Amino acid sequence: MKRNLFLPFVILALFGVLLWSPWITQETARQHTQQALLDAWQNVADGCGIDCNGCGALQAQRVPFGVLVTLEYGCGMLPADTPEYHERALVFVSTHGTVHGIPKP
Length: 105
Hints:
The chain has one domain (about 1-100). Strands 1, 2, 3, 4 and 5 form a five-stranded antiparallel β-sheet that branches. It has two helices and five strands; from the N terminus they run H-H-E-E-E-E-E. Helices cover about 30% and strands about 30% of the residues.
């Protein structure tokens, strides 16, 4: 009988840890996001990347079950390396470290 009362608390604690996901820090999420963009466009000639002024993971915000990251990147031959020619995406890094919302070819 005591075991049955203990189980809901264990489940609630596990849910809380997954909700918070402390192992996914904002810096880890930024790194995963940047690497996912580079991996997605690796074999595309004149594709997208973060090798431009001010590009990369700009902001990271913890949300339930992961982190939202604002990613700025450049695609193709830019007329000038200025923010007006850059693109942005809002990317989600999940509790499991998977990246969702990366622009792909």
